[in-house]
Design goal:
CATH class: Mainly Alpha
Order of helices and strands: HHHHHHHHHHHHHHHHHHHH
Strand content: under 5%
CATH topology: Growth Hormone, Chain: A
Helix content: over 70%
Largest sheet: none
CATH superfamily: MFS general substrate transporter like domains
Radius of gyration: 20 Å
Number of strands: 0
Structural class: mainly alpha
Shape: globular
CATH architecture: Up-down Bundle
Distance between the termini: 34 Å
Number of helices: 20
């Protein structure tokens, strides 16, 4: 793999750790700001909506920029958002900071599109899994570290750590990324041609539905685990570390399996197992070993979905990879936001112990989209030519 991909992974580690640092400490956030836990959970919604709307817009607006400058711009936005979040005196300001962080998350799609262009098609799955490895590691490092620091020293401490880490990533990017890097040239015109294809739309829909299912639980992962099996903050942090490490394994395995067995087969297996784990999770109440097993399997197969999904999407229209991947991230974060909203509204009825069942039907709907994508597809030649023509115009 090209060495720069490992730097992209490190940047994604910073972005993932910062984005999800508050998920495990919603209770301290709610206490400090005088709001409910459900309201505190909307910090993820603000981040998700901004990533869904602003990140693709900025990718188009910066399409003609040198890719090094685009990466610098995205990391600068993210750093500014972390700073505003750390200083936030109230929920509104915190949500504004999180929205700015979401706009800066355009880095992930930009880096993914660059990764696709640096390797042969046979290695796309592994290249993307390398870039996303940082996101997986963030669950093993950033999330539990943020939970421990937040419970022990206050919720602002992990946000200040995010400021320092994202600023360091920005400085390093200015030094390490060579000039002249290029990827597909995203445009709204080219997007229209690609988006008319059913295969592209189904990938986006599948991403949306699967992340509604995942984040109906993960938004409130701290309270959910504490309800199923009461424990101290240190034990909770260690369980989140285990979850993250399993996710790292899953991310690497997903990229390898995509290249070895095909993206579609990998997606099919991952989704079925993931939904089964969501359905089983409420039954682990009072059974710590079983809960740990379910979380580990969930992480392995859940994290293993992203690389084959991205690889399949990039293969359908390589010229539009930056925007297509960014819009796939948009579906991811819209799903994240909807998961937080839907489960937040359902908590009073289901309680934290059974919240996983709220997301399970959405996971089943994601599985149903596979009925129309039995084998990998490529865009028709006529559509591909249209995309190329529109990109040149």
């Amino acid at each position: 793999m090209p060495p720069i991909l490992y730097f992209f992974a490190l940047c994604n580690l910073v972005i993932g750790s910062s984005a999800f640092a508050l998920n495990g400490i919603l209770q301290p956030v709610s206490t400090a700001l005088g709001i409910s836990v459900a309201a505190a959970g909307q910090v993820m919604t603000a981040y998700a909506i901004a990533t869904a709307v602003l990140a693709p817009l900025f990718i188009v607006l910066t399409a003609r920029w040198p890719k090094k400058r685009t990466v610098q711009f995205s990391l600068a936005l993210f750093t500014a958002g972390c700073l505003l979040s750390a200083l936030a005196p109230n929920l509104l300001t915190l949500l504004m900071g999180r929205a700015l962080m979401g706009a800066g998350a355009m880095f992930t799609a930009t880096a993914s599109a660059l990764a696709v262009t640096m390797v042969s098609p046979a290695l796309r799955g592994r290249a993307l899994s390398t870039v996303f490895m940082g996101m997986s590691i963030s669950y093993a490092v950033g999330l539990p570290l943020g939970a421990w620091l937040g419970f022990e020293y206050g919720w602002r401490v992990p946000m200040w750590l995010s400021v320092a880490a994202s600023l360091s990533a920005l400085v390093a990017a200015s030094w390490l990324i060579p000039s002249g890097m290029s990827s597909g040239s995203a445009s709204f015109a080219g997007f229209r041609a690609a988006a008319r294809q059913g295969a592209v739309l189904r990938i986006w829909l599948r991403t949306l539905l699967s992340f509604v299912a995942i984040f109906s639980v993960f938004t409130y992962i701290g309270p959910v685990l504490l309800t199923l099996n009461p424990m101290g903050s240190s034990q909770l942090a260690m369980i989140l570390v285990m979850f993250g490490l399993a996710g790292v394994v899953g991310s690497a395995a997903g990229g390898w399996a995509s290249d070895r067995f095909g993206a579609m087969r990998t997606i099919q297996t991952g989704l079925v197992v993931l939904i089964a784990m969501l359905a089983v999770l409420p039954f682990t109440a009072g059974h710590m070993p079983l809960m740990l097993l379910v979380l580990a399997v969930w992480a392995i197969f859940g994290f293993g979905l992203m690389s084959p999904q991205q690889s399949l999407l990039a293969s359908l229209s390589p010229a539009q990879a930056p925007l297509l991947l960014s819009l796939n991230s948009s579906m991811l974060y819209i799903g994240t936001a909807l998961g937080a909203i839907i489960s937040g509204a359902a908590i009073s009825h289901t309680g934290f112990a059974h919240i996983a069942w709220v997301g399970t039907p959405f996971g089943l709907a994601a599985v149903l989209t596979l009925l129309f994508d039995r084998t990998p597809q490529a865009l028709p030649v006529r559509a591909t030519a249209a995309v190329a023509s529109e990109c040149r115009s």
